[in-house]
Design goal:
The chain is mainly α and about 120 residues long. It has one domain (about 35-115). It is built from 2 helices and no strands. The radius of gyration is 42 Å and the shape is rod-shaped.
């Protein structure tokens, strides 16, 4: 959290020893540890309360709805692709039928020419 190394802690300890004196330093260290512990407990309690509030709100329902909408969007895209593929296949079949009919007409015309000759 704080990027404090060994030498920084040593300088702080020496300054505290000079300012507070060796008699009061253990009591000040106890009080500092007590306040740090209370601050950590308060932050933990605040974090857990906020998490409980967020879990109880419709945010979780919104996330679920967002996933469902995303799934529906993907399903619609897949349906569109399938529909386009089937349309292309149908068009391909229709074109093949037209080519067969054109070939049959050409053969009928050539047979009619042969008969007329």
């Amino acid at each position: 959290m704080f990027d404090i190394g060994f030498w920084e802690l040593l300088v702080i300890a020496v300054v505290l020893l000079l300012v507070m004196g060796p008699e009061r330093l253990p009591e000040v260290a106890k009080q500092a540890a007590f306040f740090v512990r209370k601050a950590r407990q308060g932050m933990f309690r605040l974090r857990s309360e906020m998490q409980n509030e967020l879990d109880g709100t419709p945010f979780s329902e919104l996330e679920k709805a967002k996933r469902e909408i995303s799934d529906l969007k993907n399903d619609l895209r897949q349906f569109g692709r399938d529909l386009a593929d089937s349309a292309e296949q149908k068009i391909g079949l229709d074109e093949a039928k037209e080519q067969i009919e054109m070939t049959e007409l050409d053969t009928d015309k050539s047979v009619a020419k042969d008969d007329a000759s």
